[in-house]
Amino acid sequence: MSLNIVVLVKQVPDTSEVRMDPVRGTLIREGVPSIVNPFDVFAIEAGLALRDAYGGKVTLLSMGPSQAGAALREGISMGADDAVLISDRAFAGSDTLATSYALATAVKKIGQNAGAGVDLILAGRQAIDGDTAQVGPGVAEQLGMPSITCVSKIESLSQNGTGPNLRLRRMLEDGYQVVEVGLPAVLSVVKDINKPRLPSLRGMMKSKTYNLPTWTAADIAADTTLCGLSGSATRVKRIFSPEKRARGETLEGGAAEQAKTLVQRLRDSGFSI
Ligand SMILES: Cc1cc2nc3c(=O)[nH]c(=O)nc-3n(C[C@H](O)[C@H](O)[C@H](O)COP(=O)(O)OP(=O)(O)OC[C@H]3O[C@@H](n4cnc5c(N)ncnc54)[C@H](O)[C@@H]3O)c2cc1C
Hints:
Elements: E1 3-8, E2 11-13, E3 34-36, H1 38-54, E4 56-63, H2 69-78, E5 82-86, H3 96-114, E6 120-124, H4 135-143, E7 147-160, E8 163-172, E9 175-182, E10 185-189, H5 201-209, E11 214-215, H6 255-268
Parallel strand pairs: 1-4, 1-6, 4-5, 5-11, 6-10, 7-10
Antiparallel strand pairs: 2-3, 7-8, 8-9
Helix pairs in contact: 2-5, 3-4
The structure holds flavin-adenine dinucleotide.
């Protein structure tokens, strides 16, 4: 069994203190060093491990400005076979809907180029800047594929009557859920799924000389009315930092005494208890 795997990789600012442009409602990226979105490193490792176990190919895919190529090169140095950057002014200002459309359209082209479609798409659980966790499921929706979120373990891959089948664990708040899904499918992964490998010397050499394909909207035959701001269903209306709230008071004593004090305070404030 050989798998054609695509991993979605987003380049994000190297900080959890994301600053926003209050006028444009977009992220301020200038002067902030960039990294591979941490969750995506786990998605890359998941793709590489499946390829190593079952054969096939891992292609990394990112949408962003040309600098995002650096994130893809990092993934190549970990051992990915190929990478594609989609970059075009038509993609600028995309919300998650337009981002999902553009990425899904590029996935179709990767599948067409391979001649056999894409078997599995892996994404991080969420991007640490946008934080919506919508793009993985959004790409699945655009491609008409099942979407499994919060994947914390890939238990097995087997072949059944209808084709390849993955058995997975999904992380829940107080346990896990075992899910089986037929391929092709889209998975978004959490950090518990694996321990990402370090870049190898061979991978680092390859990433330095790798001729990164950059596709425009025309190259992937994207409908530009569905891309960028015109394809976005949402608009950022206002960006603000929440006002700091005055610190609350912790009542003295044990639970019974606290309850008594609270009831008295409510009575004093005019509540009839
Ligand atoms: C009106 C509007 C305008 C915006 N304009 C801009 C803008 O001009 N510039 C800008 O940078 N952002 C812009 N954004 C934010 C942008 O839409 C999101 O960053 C983007 O859609 C991804 O969403 P997210 O960061 O929440 O990713 P999530 O959904 O949290 O990401 C989940 C996973 O999806 C994959 N993924 C997400 N984004 C990408 C990507 N670009 N390439 C490859 N894989 C990806 C990764 O695997 C990631 O781990 C805008 C948002 C809105 C609402």
